[in-house]
Specification:
Number of helices: 4
Distance between the termini: 38 Å
Number of strands: 4
Radius of gyration: 16 Å
Length: 132
């Protein structure tokens, strides 16, 4: 476990060794000043830029872990590629791929999505809201 504020430095320090990075975070970047705003379920929504920034800095491939409940206590998981190692994507594009995959998965299996977490706690800045 590595605290978020030290994550990029630690990941880059270990870049030469084989490893996998799994990231779990709160769903709304309330404490992150550098948010990425994207359309998600028809609304402007804030996302953490960190995972995409780390993938770019380390030239890592990026996978989405699709998790689906089969029945109580049983799940299927699938790793789906979002970006190849070294693929030169800007942060909003990579996060956009992630957001699109999450939205598609929720539309396929809405019963598996936790709707109680208030995904839209933050209001977009005026310039983002005006663009949509």
């Amino acid at each position: 476990m590595v605290p978020g504020k030290r994550l990029l430095r630690e990941v880059l320090r270990r870049r030469g060794s084989a490893h996998a990075i799994g990231m779990v975070a709160d769903q709304v970047p309330t404490s992150s000043p550098g948010r990425v705003w994207l359309r998600f379920f028809g609304r402007e929504t804030a996302f953490f830029p960190g995972p995409a920034e780390i993938a770019r800095a380390g030239h890592y491939s990026v996978y989405f872990l699709a998790l689906r409940r089969v029945r109580r206590g049983y799940y299927e998981t699938r790793f789906e590629p979002l970006a190849a190692a070294g693929e030169d994507l800007d942060v909003p594009t990579l996060i956009g791929r992630y957001a699109a995959r999450v939205e598609a998965l929720v539309r396929e299996h809405p019963e598996d999505w936790a709707w109680t977490h208030r995904r839209w706690k933050l209001e977009p800045p005026a310039k983002v809201a005006a663009a949509s």
